[in-house]
Amino acid sequence: MPDRGPLTDDQLRRLSVRMRQDVLRYILSAGAGHTGGSLSCVDILNVLYNRVLRVSPETFGNPDRDRYVQSKGHSVEALYVVLAHAGFFPIEQLETLCQYNSPFVGHPTRKTPGIEMNTGGLGHGLPICTGMAIGGQRSGARYRVFTLMGDGELAEGSNWEAAMAAAHYKLDNLTAIIDHNSLQITGATRDVCSNEPLDEKFAAFGWAVVSIDGHDYGQLTDALSAPAEAGKPTCVIANTTKGRGVSFMEGDVAWHHGVPSQQQYDDAIAELQAAERELEEAAL
Amino acid sequence: MSAPAPSVYSPAATAHAERLGLSLGRANLEVFAETLEELADSDPSIVAVTSDSRGSGKLKPFGQRLPDQIVEVGIAEQNLVGIAAGLAAVGRRSFAVSPACFLTARSLEQIKNDICYSDVPATVVGISAGVSYGALGSTHHSLHDYAALRAIHNLTIIAPADNYEAAEAVRLAAAHDKPVYLRFGKAKLYDLPRHGQQFEPGRATLLRDGSDVALFGIGETVIHCLLAAEMLAEDGVEARVLSMHTLRPLDADAIEEAARDCRAIVTAEEHSVHGGLGGAVAEALAERGGAPPLKIVGVPDEDTVTGSQADIFRHYGITGEGISAAAQHLLQRQEVAR
Hints:
A: alpha/beta, Rossmann fold, two-stranded antiparallel sheet, 9 helices, globular, B: alpha/beta, 2 domains, five-stranded mixed β-sheet, 14 strands, EC 2.2.1.7 (chain B), transferase (chain B), Transketolase_C (chain B), 1-deoxy-D-xylulose-5-phosphate synthase activity (chain B), 1-deoxy-D-xylulose-5-phosphate synthase (chain B)
Protein backbone atom coordinates (compact mmCIF):
# COMPACT_ATOMS: atom_id res chain seq x y z
CA MET A 1 0.00 0.00 0.00
CA PRO A 2 1.28 3.46 -0.80
CA ASP A 3 1.70 6.06 1.89
CA ARG A 4 -1.78 7.66 2.01
CA GLY A 5 -0.77 10.64 4.10
CA PRO A 6 -0.88 14.14 2.62
CA LEU A 7 1.82 14.49 0.00
CA THR A 8 3.85 17.62 -0.58
CA ASP A 9 4.03 19.22 -4.02
CA ASP A 10 7.54 17.78 -4.36
CA GLN A 11 6.37 14.31 -3.52
CA LEU A 12 3.49 14.61 -6.00
CA ARG A 13 5.87 15.84 -8.67
CA ARG A 14 8.13 12.83 -8.14
CA LEU A 15 5.17 10.49 -8.09
CA SER A 16 3.97 11.89 -11.43
CA VAL A 17 7.37 11.26 -13.02
CA ARG A 18 7.16 7.67 -11.83
CA MET A 19 3.58 7.35 -13.07
CA ARG A 20 4.66 8.60 -16.50
CA GLN A 21 7.24 5.81 -16.61
CA ASP A 22 4.55 3.30 -15.67
CA VAL A 23 2.24 4.63 -18.37
CA LEU A 24 4.96 4.13 -20.98
CA ARG A 25 5.96 0.71 -19.63
CA TYR A 26 2.46 -0.72 -19.90
CA ILE A 27 1.73 0.92 -23.26
CA LEU A 28 4.96 -0.62 -24.57
CA SER A 29 4.08 -4.08 -23.26
CA ALA A 30 0.49 -3.81 -24.57
CA GLY A 31 1.67 -2.54 -27.93
CA ALA A 32 -1.29 -0.14 -27.80
CA GLY A 33 -2.46 2.92 -25.96
CA HIS A 34 -2.98 6.65 -26.07
CA THR A 35 0.41 7.92 -25.02
CA GLY A 36 0.18 11.67 -25.58
CA GLY A 37 -3.15 12.26 -23.87
CA SER A 38 -2.27 10.00 -20.95
CA LEU A 39 0.94 11.91 -20.29
CA SER A 40 -0.91 15.24 -20.47
CA CYS A 41 -3.40 14.31 -17.74
CA VAL A 42 -1.19 12.43 -15.24
CA ASP A 43 -0.71 15.50 -13.03
CA ILE A 44 -4.44 16.24 -12.97
CA LEU A 45 -5.30 12.67 -11.96
CA ASN A 46 -2.49 12.56 -9.44
CA VAL A 47 -3.83 15.64 -7.65
CA LEU A 48 -7.40 14.35 -7.86
CA TYR A 49 -6.65 10.96 -6.35
CA ASN A 50 -4.06 12.08 -3.83
CA ARG A 51 -5.49 15.37 -2.65
CA VAL A 52 -9.07 15.96 -3.69
CA LEU A 53 -11.33 12.94 -4.13
CA ARG A 54 -12.88 11.45 -1.03
CA VAL A 55 -12.57 7.96 -2.39
CA SER A 56 -10.29 5.04 -1.66
CA PRO A 57 -10.33 1.29 -2.22
CA GLU A 58 -11.87 0.94 1.24
CA THR A 59 -14.64 3.49 0.66
CA PHE A 60 -15.42 2.77 -2.99
CA GLY A 61 -18.80 1.21 -2.12
CA ASN A 62 -19.80 4.12 0.08
CA PRO A 63 -22.72 6.02 -1.50
CA ASP A 64 -21.32 9.29 -0.17
CA ARG A 65 -17.97 8.92 -1.98
CA ASP A 66 -16.87 11.51 -4.50
CA ARG A 67 -17.34 10.41 -8.10
CA TYR A 68 -14.83 10.66 -10.93
CA VAL A 69 -15.82 9.75 -14.50
CA GLN A 70 -13.17 9.90 -17.19
CA SER A 71 -14.91 11.22 -20.26
CA LYS A 72 -11.71 11.17 -22.32
CA GLY A 73 -11.69 7.42 -21.95
CA HIS A 74 -8.81 6.90 -24.37
CA SER A 75 -6.37 8.16 -21.75
CA VAL A 76 -7.25 5.21 -19.58
CA GLU A 77 -3.62 4.17 -19.20
CA ALA A 78 -3.02 7.20 -16.99
CA LEU A 79 -6.11 6.39 -14.95
CA TYR A 80 -5.06 2.75 -14.48
CA VAL A 81 -1.63 3.77 -13.25
CA VAL A 82 -3.03 6.40 -10.87
CA LEU A 83 -5.62 3.94 -9.50
CA ALA A 84 -2.89 1.34 -8.98
CA HIS A 85 -0.75 3.86 -7.10
CA ALA A 86 -3.83 4.72 -5.01
CA GLY A 87 -4.06 1.06 -3.99
CA PHE A 88 -7.09 -0.06 -6.00
CA PHE A 89 -5.14 -3.02 -7.46
CA PRO A 90 -1.53 -4.19 -7.77
CA ILE A 91 0.17 -2.36 -10.62
CA GLU A 92 1.61 -5.59 -12.02
CA GLN A 93 -1.90 -6.49 -13.14
CA LEU A 94 -1.46 -3.90 -15.89
CA GLU A 95 0.80 -6.38 -17.65
CA THR A 96 -2.42 -7.74 -19.18
CA LEU A 97 -3.42 -4.30 -20.52
CA CYS A 98 -5.35 -4.64 -23.79
CA GLN A 99 -4.60 -8.36 -23.93
CA TYR A 100 -7.18 -11.05 -24.67
CA ASN A 101 -9.91 -11.13 -22.02
CA SER A 102 -8.08 -8.70 -19.73
CA PRO A 103 -10.16 -6.58 -17.35
CA PHE A 104 -7.86 -3.72 -18.35
CA VAL A 105 -9.54 -2.69 -21.59
CA GLY A 106 -8.33 0.15 -23.81
CA HIS A 107 -11.10 2.37 -22.42
CA PRO A 108 -12.46 2.50 -18.84
CA THR A 109 -14.85 -0.22 -17.70
CA ARG A 110 -16.32 -1.08 -14.32
CA LYS A 111 -14.40 -4.34 -14.44
CA THR A 112 -11.53 -2.31 -12.99
CA PRO A 113 -11.73 -1.54 -9.29
CA GLY A 114 -12.20 2.19 -8.82
CA ILE A 115 -13.89 2.94 -12.14
CA GLU A 116 -17.41 4.34 -11.86
CA MET A 117 -18.75 4.14 -15.41
CA ASN A 118 -17.84 2.61 -18.74
CA THR A 119 -16.70 5.35 -21.08
CA GLY A 120 -14.87 5.72 -24.35
CA GLY A 121 -17.35 7.26 -26.74
CA LEU A 122 -16.70 10.98 -26.42
CA GLY A 123 -19.22 13.46 -25.05
CA HIS A 124 -20.64 11.10 -22.44
CA GLY A 125 -18.90 12.03 -19.19
CA LEU A 126 -20.49 15.42 -18.61
CA PRO A 127 -24.13 14.27 -19.05
CA ILE A 128 -23.51 11.28 -16.77
CA CYS A 129 -21.86 13.46 -14.14
CA THR A 130 -24.69 15.98 -14.40
CA GLY A 131 -27.08 13.15 -13.50
CA MET A 132 -24.85 12.07 -10.62
CA ALA A 133 -24.67 15.65 -9.36
CA ILE A 134 -28.45 16.14 -9.59
CA GLY A 135 -28.83 12.90 -7.61
CA GLY A 136 -26.51 14.21 -4.91
CA GLN A 137 -28.15 17.61 -4.81
CA ARG A 138 -31.66 16.15 -4.52
CA SER A 139 -30.71 13.82 -1.69
CA GLY A 140 -28.62 16.37 0.19
CA ALA A 141 -25.49 14.21 -0.15
CA ARG A 142 -22.19 16.01 0.21
CA TYR A 143 -20.29 14.15 -2.47
CA ARG A 144 -18.71 16.01 -5.38
CA VAL A 145 -18.62 14.83 -8.99
CA PHE A 146 -15.71 15.29 -11.39
CA THR A 147 -15.20 14.55 -15.05
CA LEU A 148 -12.14 14.94 -17.24
CA MET A 149 -12.73 15.88 -20.86
CA GLY A 150 -10.43 16.41 -23.79
CA ASP A 151 -10.57 19.75 -25.57
CA GLY A 152 -11.17 18.02 -28.93
CA GLU A 153 -14.05 16.15 -27.29
CA LEU A 154 -15.90 19.43 -26.82
CA ALA A 155 -17.04 19.30 -30.43
CA GLU A 156 -19.57 16.68 -29.32
CA GLY A 157 -22.88 18.49 -28.86
CA SER A 158 -23.94 16.36 -25.91
CA ASN A 159 -21.41 18.26 -23.78
CA TRP A 160 -23.20 21.52 -24.40
CA GLU A 161 -26.58 19.97 -23.66
CA ALA A 162 -25.17 18.94 -20.30
CA ALA A 163 -23.40 22.28 -19.77
CA MET A 164 -26.78 23.99 -20.10
CA ALA A 165 -28.52 21.61 -17.71
CA ALA A 166 -25.74 21.72 -15.10
CA ALA A 167 -25.95 25.51 -14.93
CA HIS A 168 -29.76 25.41 -14.94
CA TYR A 169 -29.70 23.14 -11.89
CA LYS A 170 -26.95 25.21 -10.19
CA LEU A 171 -24.77 22.15 -9.70
CA ASP A 172 -21.91 23.51 -7.64
CA ASN A 173 -21.11 19.91 -6.69
CA LEU A 174 -19.98 19.33 -10.28
CA THR A 175 -16.53 20.09 -11.69
CA ALA A 176 -15.60 19.56 -15.34
CA ILE A 177 -11.87 19.54 -16.03
CA ILE A 178 -10.75 20.20 -19.58
CA ASP A 179 -7.39 18.61 -20.39
CA HIS A 180 -6.55 21.49 -22.69
CA ASN A 181 -3.58 20.08 -24.57
CA SER A 182 -4.77 21.71 -27.81
CA LEU A 183 -4.17 18.62 -29.95
CA GLN A 184 -6.47 15.91 -31.24
CA ILE A 185 -5.91 12.96 -33.53
CA THR A 186 -5.89 14.95 -36.77
CA GLY A 187 -3.89 17.93 -35.57
CA ALA A 188 -4.28 21.14 -33.62
CA THR A 189 -7.80 21.53 -32.24
CA ARG A 190 -7.90 25.12 -33.50
CA ASP A 191 -7.30 23.79 -37.05
CA VAL A 192 -9.68 20.81 -36.85
CA CYS A 193 -12.66 22.75 -35.50
CA SER A 194 -11.78 25.58 -33.18
CA ASN A 195 -13.66 25.75 -29.89
CA GLU A 196 -11.98 28.86 -28.56
CA PRO A 197 -12.56 30.93 -26.52
CA LEU A 198 -13.39 28.04 -24.23
CA ASP A 199 -13.51 30.10 -21.05
CA GLU A 200 -16.03 32.52 -22.52
CA LYS A 201 -18.16 29.69 -23.86
CA PHE A 202 -18.45 27.96 -20.48
CA ALA A 203 -18.97 31.29 -18.73
CA ALA A 204 -21.75 32.15 -21.19
CA PHE A 205 -23.37 28.82 -20.36
CA GLY A 206 -23.47 29.86 -16.71
CA TRP A 207 -20.39 28.16 -15.32
CA ALA A 208 -17.66 29.44 -13.04
CA VAL A 209 -14.47 29.11 -15.09
CA VAL A 210 -10.92 28.80 -13.82
CA SER A 211 -7.94 28.63 -16.19
CA ILE A 212 -4.81 27.09 -14.76
CA ASP A 213 -1.52 25.45 -15.61
CA GLY A 214 -2.56 21.80 -15.64
CA HIS A 215 0.90 20.67 -14.57
CA ASP A 216 1.12 22.97 -11.52
CA TYR A 217 0.23 21.18 -8.30
CA GLY A 218 -0.64 24.30 -6.36
CA GLN A 219 -2.95 25.61 -9.06
CA LEU A 220 -4.54 22.20 -9.58
CA THR A 221 -5.10 21.79 -5.86
CA ASP A 222 -6.65 25.24 -5.52
CA ALA A 223 -8.91 24.77 -8.52
CA LEU A 224 -10.11 21.30 -7.60
CA SER A 225 -10.41 21.43 -3.81
CA ALA A 226 -13.59 23.47 -3.70
CA PRO A 227 -16.29 24.74 -6.07
CA ALA A 228 -15.26 28.06 -7.60
CA GLU A 229 -18.60 29.75 -6.94
CA ALA A 230 -21.70 28.80 -4.97
CA GLY A 231 -24.62 27.92 -7.19
CA LYS A 232 -22.54 27.32 -10.32
CA PRO A 233 -20.79 24.28 -11.76
CA THR A 234 -17.04 24.71 -12.06
CA CYS A 235 -15.10 24.38 -15.30
CA VAL A 236 -11.35 24.02 -14.80
CA ILE A 237 -9.48 24.67 -18.02
CA ALA A 238 -6.22 22.89 -17.32
CA ASN A 239 -3.67 23.99 -19.88
CA THR A 240 -1.43 21.01 -20.52
CA THR A 241 1.15 19.68 -22.93
CA LYS A 242 0.36 16.56 -24.87
CA GLY A 243 3.15 14.02 -24.30
CA ARG A 244 4.25 15.93 -21.19
CA GLY A 245 7.54 14.84 -19.65
CA VAL A 246 9.15 13.28 -22.72
CA SER A 247 10.78 15.97 -24.84
CA PHE A 248 10.42 14.21 -28.19
CA MET A 249 6.75 13.47 -27.56
CA GLU A 250 5.70 16.89 -26.27
CA GLY A 251 3.36 18.76 -28.60
CA ASP A 252 3.69 16.14 -31.34
CA VAL A 253 0.31 14.87 -32.52
CA ALA A 254 1.93 11.66 -33.79
CA TRP A 255 1.94 10.50 -30.18
CA HIS A 256 -1.86 10.73 -29.86
CA HIS A 257 -1.94 6.95 -30.02
CA GLY A 258 1.65 6.35 -31.03
CA VAL A 259 3.33 3.42 -29.28
CA PRO A 260 7.06 3.81 -28.63
CA SER A 261 9.65 1.47 -30.10
CA GLN A 262 11.99 -0.15 -27.58
CA GLN A 263 14.63 2.49 -28.36
CA GLN A 264 12.14 5.34 -27.99
CA TYR A 265 10.92 3.81 -24.75
CA ASP A 266 14.49 3.56 -23.40
CA ASP A 267 15.15 7.18 -24.37
CA ALA A 268 11.91 8.33 -22.73
CA ILE A 269 12.59 6.39 -19.54
CA ALA A 270 16.16 7.75 -19.37
CA GLU A 271 14.78 11.27 -19.61
CA LEU A 272 12.13 10.67 -16.96
CA GLN A 273 14.62 8.99 -14.64
CA ALA A 274 16.95 11.95 -15.01
CA ALA A 275 14.07 14.23 -14.10
CA GLU A 276 13.27 12.04 -11.12
CA ARG A 277 16.91 12.19 -9.89
CA GLU A 278 16.89 15.93 -10.29
CA LEU A 279 13.74 16.24 -8.23
CA GLU A 280 15.17 13.98 -5.54
CA GLU A 281 18.37 15.98 -5.35
CA ALA A 282 16.43 19.23 -5.17
CA ALA A 283 14.40 17.80 -2.32
CA LEU A 284 17.48 16.89 -0.28
CA MET B 1 -61.51 21.75 -34.19
CA SER B 2 -59.92 19.03 -36.19
CA ALA B 3 -61.93 15.98 -37.15
CA PRO B 4 -61.59 13.07 -34.74
CA ALA B 5 -58.99 10.54 -35.83
CA PRO B 6 -60.52 7.53 -37.55
CA SER B 7 -60.77 4.42 -35.41
CA VAL B 8 -57.97 1.96 -35.77
CA TYR B 9 -60.60 -0.77 -35.65
CA SER B 10 -62.85 -1.44 -38.67
CA PRO B 11 -66.59 -1.99 -38.12
CA ALA B 12 -66.03 -5.74 -38.59
CA ALA B 13 -63.17 -5.72 -36.10
CA THR B 14 -65.22 -3.71 -33.62
CA ALA B 15 -68.07 -6.21 -33.93
CA HIS B 16 -65.64 -9.03 -33.17
CA ALA B 17 -64.24 -7.18 -30.19
CA GLU B 18 -67.76 -6.68 -28.86
CA ARG B 19 -68.60 -10.33 -29.43
CA LEU B 20 -65.50 -11.25 -27.39
CA GLY B 21 -66.77 -8.96 -24.65
CA LEU B 22 -63.62 -6.82 -24.73
CA SER B 23 -63.86 -3.38 -23.27
CA LEU B 24 -61.95 -0.44 -24.64
CA GLY B 25 -59.38 0.69 -22.09
CA ARG B 26 -57.08 3.68 -22.12
CA ALA B 27 -53.85 4.46 -23.90
CA ASN B 28 -50.86 2.61 -22.46
CA LEU B 29 -49.08 5.93 -22.17
CA GLU B 30 -51.62 7.09 -19.59
CA VAL B 31 -51.33 3.85 -17.66
CA PHE B 32 -47.55 4.24 -17.68
CA ALA B 33 -47.68 7.74 -16.22
CA GLU B 34 -50.19 6.83 -13.52
CA THR B 35 -48.38 3.66 -12.52
CA LEU B 36 -45.05 5.45 -12.33
CA GLU B 37 -46.57 8.16 -10.16
CA GLU B 38 -48.12 5.58 -7.86
CA LEU B 39 -44.77 3.76 -7.51
CA ALA B 40 -42.76 6.95 -7.11
CA ASP B 41 -45.08 8.12 -4.36
CA SER B 42 -43.87 5.35 -2.09
CA ASP B 43 -40.34 4.99 -3.52
CA PRO B 44 -38.36 8.24 -3.43
CA SER B 45 -35.56 6.67 -5.47
CA ILE B 46 -37.75 6.76 -8.60
CA VAL B 47 -37.01 9.71 -10.86
CA ALA B 48 -38.62 10.60 -14.17
CA VAL B 49 -36.33 12.44 -16.59
CA THR B 50 -38.04 14.27 -19.42
CA SER B 51 -36.93 16.24 -22.46
CA ASP B 52 -39.69 18.84 -22.67
CA SER B 53 -41.92 15.78 -22.93
CA ARG B 54 -43.85 15.72 -19.67
CA GLY B 55 -46.95 16.78 -21.62
CA SER B 56 -46.67 14.09 -24.27
CA GLY B 57 -45.59 11.64 -21.57
CA LYS B 58 -48.68 12.45 -19.47
CA LEU B 59 -46.33 13.27 -16.59
CA LYS B 60 -47.66 16.71 -15.68
CA PRO B 61 -49.52 15.39 -12.60
CA PHE B 62 -46.39 13.46 -11.61
CA GLY B 63 -44.30 16.62 -11.85
CA GLN B 64 -46.82 18.62 -9.81
CA ARG B 65 -47.13 16.08 -7.05
CA LEU B 66 -43.51 14.89 -6.90
CA PRO B 67 -41.38 17.84 -8.05
CA ASP B 68 -38.26 16.44 -6.42
CA GLN B 69 -38.62 13.28 -8.48
CA ILE B 70 -38.74 14.79 -11.94
CA VAL B 71 -35.77 16.19 -13.84
CA GLU B 72 -36.38 18.33 -16.91
CA VAL B 73 -33.47 18.54 -19.34
CA GLY B 74 -35.06 20.43 -22.22
CA ILE B 75 -35.04 19.22 -25.81
CA ALA B 76 -31.80 17.27 -25.49
CA GLU B 77 -32.18 13.53 -25.86
CA GLN B 78 -28.53 12.57 -25.53
CA ASN B 79 -28.28 14.49 -22.29
CA LEU B 80 -31.60 12.97 -21.19
CA VAL B 81 -30.18 9.46 -21.32
CA GLY B 82 -26.77 10.43 -19.93
CA ILE B 83 -28.40 12.14 -16.94
CA ALA B 84 -30.70 9.15 -16.41
CA ALA B 85 -27.63 6.89 -16.41
CA GLY B 86 -25.84 9.15 -13.92
CA LEU B 87 -28.86 9.19 -11.62
CA ALA B 88 -29.09 5.40 -11.81
CA ALA B 89 -25.38 5.11 -11.02
CA VAL B 90 -25.87 7.00 -7.74
CA GLY B 91 -28.77 4.87 -6.56
CA ARG B 92 -31.85 6.26 -8.28
CA ARG B 93 -34.24 4.28 -10.43
CA SER B 94 -34.47 6.58 -13.37
CA PHE B 95 -36.99 6.59 -16.21
CA ALA B 96 -35.83 8.52 -19.28
CA VAL B 97 -39.03 9.50 -21.07
CA SER B 98 -39.10 10.87 -24.61
CA PRO B 99 -40.77 10.20 -27.95
CA ALA B 100 -39.43 6.85 -29.15
CA CYS B 101 -38.37 8.23 -32.52
CA PHE B 102 -35.85 10.68 -31.02
CA LEU B 103 -34.98 8.76 -27.89
CA THR B 104 -33.80 5.63 -29.64
CA ALA B 105 -32.10 7.32 -32.58
CA ARG B 106 -30.38 10.43 -31.21
CA SER B 107 -29.49 8.74 -27.94
CA LEU B 108 -28.64 5.31 -29.24
CA GLU B 109 -25.01 5.57 -28.14
CA GLN B 110 -26.01 6.77 -24.68
CA ILE B 111 -28.43 3.81 -24.33
CA LYS B 112 -25.69 1.45 -25.49
CA ASN B 113 -22.78 2.84 -23.45
CA ASP B 114 -24.09 4.79 -20.49
CA ILE B 115 -26.93 2.47 -19.54
CA CYS B 116 -26.41 -1.01 -21.00
CA TYR B 117 -22.61 -1.25 -21.07
CA SER B 118 -22.26 0.43 -17.67
CA ASP B 119 -25.12 -1.77 -16.44
CA VAL B 120 -27.12 0.73 -14.40
CA PRO B 121 -30.80 0.34 -13.43
CA ALA B 122 -32.24 2.91 -15.81
CA THR B 123 -35.40 2.48 -17.87
CA VAL B 124 -35.66 4.02 -21.31
CA VAL B 125 -39.28 4.85 -22.09
CA GLY B 126 -40.17 5.38 -25.74
CA ILE B 127 -43.51 7.16 -25.89
CA SER B 128 -45.77 7.81 -28.90
CA ALA B 129 -43.96 4.89 -30.49
CA GLY B 130 -44.38 3.32 -33.89
CA VAL B 131 -46.67 5.50 -35.97
CA SER B 132 -48.53 7.11 -33.05
CA TYR B 133 -47.55 10.46 -34.61
CA GLY B 134 -48.70 9.14 -37.99
CA ALA B 135 -49.55 12.38 -39.73
CA LEU B 136 -46.40 14.15 -38.59
CA GLY B 137 -44.31 12.16 -41.02
CA SER B 138 -41.31 9.89 -40.98
CA THR B 139 -39.24 12.14 -38.69
CA HIS B 140 -41.73 11.27 -35.97
CA HIS B 141 -42.20 7.59 -36.72
CA SER B 142 -40.24 5.08 -34.67
CA LEU B 143 -39.92 2.12 -36.99
CA HIS B 144 -36.29 1.28 -36.18
CA ASP B 145 -36.18 1.03 -32.39
CA TYR B 146 -36.69 -2.73 -32.07
CA ALA B 147 -34.02 -3.37 -34.68
CA ALA B 148 -31.50 -1.00 -33.14
CA LEU B 149 -32.07 -1.95 -29.51
CA ARG B 150 -32.37 -5.68 -30.11
CA ALA B 151 -28.69 -5.74 -31.07
CA ILE B 152 -27.59 -4.13 -27.79
CA HIS B 153 -26.54 -6.48 -25.05
CA ASN B 154 -28.02 -6.22 -21.56
CA LEU B 155 -31.36 -4.63 -22.42
CA THR B 156 -34.79 -6.07 -21.74
CA ILE B 157 -37.24 -4.81 -24.39
CA ILE B 158 -40.95 -4.75 -23.59
CA ALA B 159 -43.89 -3.44 -25.61
CA PRO B 160 -47.10 -4.01 -23.61
CA ALA B 161 -50.23 -4.98 -25.50
CA ASP B 162 -52.87 -3.58 -23.14
CA ASN B 163 -53.33 -1.60 -19.96
CA TYR B 164 -52.67 -4.62 -17.72
CA GLU B 165 -49.39 -5.43 -19.42
CA ALA B 166 -48.43 -1.75 -19.38
CA ALA B 167 -48.90 -1.41 -15.62
CA GLU B 168 -47.10 -4.70 -14.96
CA ALA B 169 -44.19 -3.72 -17.21
CA VAL B 170 -43.71 -0.42 -15.37
CA ARG B 171 -43.75 -2.23 -12.01
CA LEU B 172 -41.24 -4.74 -13.31
CA ALA B 173 -38.90 -2.01 -14.60
CA ALA B 174 -39.06 -0.15 -11.29
CA ALA B 175 -38.11 -3.29 -9.38
CA HIS B 176 -35.52 -4.55 -11.87
CA ASP B 177 -31.87 -3.71 -11.34
CA LYS B 178 -31.08 -4.01 -15.02
CA PRO B 179 -31.64 -1.76 -18.06
CA VAL B 180 -35.11 -1.89 -19.60
CA TYR B 181 -36.70 -0.37 -22.69
CA LEU B 182 -40.48 0.19 -22.54
CA ARG B 183 -42.48 1.16 -25.62
CA PHE B 184 -45.84 2.86 -25.37
CA GLY B 185 -48.32 4.18 -27.90
CA LYS B 186 -51.12 6.71 -27.73
CA ALA B 187 -54.08 4.71 -29.02
CA LYS B 188 -56.80 3.43 -26.72
CA LEU B 189 -56.47 -0.33 -26.39
CA TYR B 190 -58.89 -3.13 -25.67
CA ASP B 191 -58.26 -5.05 -22.48
CA LEU B 192 -57.20 -8.48 -23.66
CA PRO B 193 -58.57 -11.76 -22.30
CA ARG B 194 -55.89 -13.36 -20.14
CA HIS B 195 -57.52 -16.51 -18.84
CA GLY B 196 -55.84 -15.99 -15.48
CA GLN B 197 -52.34 -15.71 -16.90
CA GLN B 198 -49.91 -13.40 -15.18
CA PHE B 199 -47.59 -11.06 -17.02
CA GLU B 200 -44.17 -12.63 -17.00
CA PRO B 201 -41.31 -10.93 -18.84
CA GLY B 202 -39.73 -13.23 -21.39
CA ARG B 203 -42.81 -15.46 -21.46
CA ALA B 204 -45.33 -14.82 -24.22
CA THR B 205 -48.97 -14.64 -23.16
CA LEU B 206 -51.29 -17.12 -24.88
CA LEU B 207 -54.49 -15.25 -25.64
CA ARG B 208 -56.16 -17.87 -27.82
CA ASP B 209 -55.19 -21.39 -28.74
CA GLY B 210 -55.28 -22.92 -32.20
CA SER B 211 -53.22 -25.20 -34.40
CA ASP B 212 -53.72 -23.99 -37.98
CA VAL B 213 -51.77 -20.77 -37.80
CA ALA B 214 -49.94 -18.86 -35.05
CA LEU B 215 -50.30 -15.08 -34.89
CA PHE B 216 -47.58 -13.29 -32.92
CA GLY B 217 -48.22 -9.69 -32.04
CA ILE B 218 -46.28 -7.14 -30.03
CA GLY B 219 -47.50 -3.94 -28.41
CA GLU B 220 -50.48 -2.35 -30.07
CA THR B 221 -50.70 -4.99 -32.81
CA VAL B 222 -51.66 -7.84 -30.49
CA ILE B 223 -55.32 -6.86 -30.45
CA HIS B 224 -55.33 -6.92 -34.25
CA CYS B 225 -53.96 -10.47 -34.14
CA LEU B 226 -56.79 -11.46 -31.84
CA LEU B 227 -59.41 -9.86 -34.09
CA ALA B 228 -57.77 -11.58 -37.09
CA ALA B 229 -58.19 -14.89 -35.27
CA GLU B 230 -61.92 -14.19 -34.92
CA MET B 231 -62.17 -13.47 -38.65
CA LEU B 232 -60.22 -16.65 -39.47
CA ALA B 233 -62.51 -18.69 -37.22
CA GLU B 234 -65.44 -17.69 -39.43
CA ASP B 235 -63.67 -19.58 -42.22
CA GLY B 236 -62.93 -22.54 -39.98
CA VAL B 237 -59.26 -21.63 -39.46
CA GLU B 238 -58.11 -21.96 -35.87
CA ALA B 239 -55.47 -19.41 -34.96
CA ARG B 240 -53.22 -19.33 -31.93
CA VAL B 241 -52.61 -15.78 -30.68
CA LEU B 242 -49.69 -14.73 -28.52
CA SER B 243 -48.69 -11.41 -27.03
CA MET B 244 -44.92 -11.36 -27.52
CA HIS B 245 -44.69 -8.42 -25.12
CA THR B 246 -41.02 -9.10 -24.42
CA LEU B 247 -38.97 -8.82 -27.58
CA ARG B 248 -35.81 -9.45 -25.64
CA PRO B 249 -35.36 -11.97 -24.17
CA LEU B 250 -37.62 -13.55 -26.77
CA ASP B 251 -39.76 -16.52 -25.75
CA ALA B 252 -38.04 -19.19 -27.86
CA ASP B 253 -40.20 -21.93 -26.35
CA ALA B 254 -43.41 -20.31 -27.58
CA ILE B 255 -41.92 -20.02 -31.06
CA GLU B 256 -40.77 -23.64 -30.97
CA GLU B 257 -44.21 -24.81 -29.89
CA ALA B 258 -45.93 -22.78 -32.61
CA ALA B 259 -43.54 -24.16 -35.22
CA ARG B 260 -44.35 -27.66 -34.05
CA ASP B 261 -48.13 -27.27 -33.75
CA CYS B 262 -49.08 -24.86 -36.55
CA ARG B 263 -48.83 -24.86 -40.34
CA ALA B 264 -47.94 -21.17 -40.66
CA ILE B 265 -46.81 -18.23 -38.57
CA VAL B 266 -47.69 -14.56 -39.01
CA THR B 267 -46.04 -11.81 -37.00
CA ALA B 268 -47.44 -8.28 -36.72
CA GLU B 269 -45.64 -5.20 -35.47
CA GLU B 270 -45.76 -1.40 -35.62
CA HIS B 271 -42.19 -1.33 -36.91
CA SER B 272 -40.19 -1.88 -40.04
CA VAL B 273 -40.41 -5.44 -41.34
CA HIS B 274 -36.62 -5.50 -40.90
CA GLY B 275 -35.08 -6.37 -37.57
CA GLY B 276 -38.11 -6.34 -35.30
CA LEU B 277 -40.36 -9.09 -33.97
CA GLY B 278 -40.65 -10.73 -37.39
CA GLY B 279 -36.89 -10.70 -37.83
CA ALA B 280 -36.36 -12.16 -34.38
CA VAL B 281 -38.92 -14.92 -34.99
CA ALA B 282 -37.39 -15.63 -38.41
CA GLU B 283 -33.95 -16.05 -36.83
CA ALA B 284 -35.31 -18.45 -34.25
CA LEU B 285 -37.21 -20.45 -36.87
CA ALA B 286 -34.29 -20.64 -39.29
CA GLU B 287 -31.99 -21.94 -36.57
CA ARG B 288 -34.55 -24.58 -35.70
CA GLY B 289 -34.81 -25.84 -39.31
CA GLY B 290 -37.92 -27.34 -40.88
CA ALA B 291 -39.95 -24.33 -39.92
CA PRO B 292 -43.43 -23.50 -41.23
CA PRO B 293 -43.74 -20.52 -43.62
CA LEU B 294 -43.66 -17.07 -42.06
CA LYS B 295 -45.17 -13.73 -43.04
CA ILE B 296 -43.92 -10.57 -41.38
CA VAL B 297 -46.63 -7.91 -41.25
CA GLY B 298 -45.26 -4.44 -40.56
CA VAL B 299 -44.09 -1.35 -42.39
CA PRO B 300 -42.23 -2.30 -45.56
CA ASP B 301 -38.94 -0.87 -46.71
CA GLU B 302 -40.27 2.24 -48.46
CA ASP B 303 -40.96 5.92 -47.93
CA THR B 304 -43.65 5.38 -45.33
CA VAL B 305 -47.15 6.61 -46.10
CA THR B 306 -48.45 9.22 -43.66
CA GLY B 307 -51.85 9.78 -42.13
CA SER B 308 -53.34 8.82 -38.80
CA GLN B 309 -52.12 5.66 -37.07
CA ALA B 310 -55.35 4.04 -38.31
CA ASP B 311 -54.65 5.10 -41.89
CA ILE B 312 -51.15 3.70 -41.76
CA PHE B 313 -52.25 0.46 -40.16
CA ARG B 314 -54.90 0.02 -42.86
CA HIS B 315 -52.48 0.92 -45.65
CA TYR B 316 -50.02 -1.78 -44.60
CA GLY B 317 -52.55 -4.35 -43.44
CA ILE B 318 -51.64 -4.15 -39.76
CA THR B 319 -55.29 -4.88 -39.01
CA GLY B 320 -57.52 -7.85 -38.30
CA GLU B 321 -58.35 -7.98 -42.01
CA GLY B 322 -54.72 -7.68 -43.14
CA ILE B 323 -53.34 -10.20 -40.69
CA SER B 324 -56.09 -12.76 -41.41
CA ALA B 325 -55.50 -12.32 -45.15
CA ALA B 326 -51.76 -12.90 -44.65
CA ALA B 327 -52.54 -16.08 -42.71
CA GLN B 328 -54.98 -17.33 -45.36
CA HIS B 329 -52.45 -16.66 -48.08
CA LEU B 330 -49.76 -18.71 -46.31
CA LEU B 331 -52.17 -21.59 -45.65
CA GLN B 332 -53.44 -21.61 -49.25
CA ARG B 333 -49.90 -21.59 -50.60
CA GLN B 334 -49.25 -24.68 -48.54
CA GLU B 335 -52.35 -26.39 -49.89
CA VAL B 336 -51.19 -25.72 -53.48
CA ALA B 337 -47.73 -27.06 -52.65
CA ARG B 338 -49.15 -30.33 -51.40
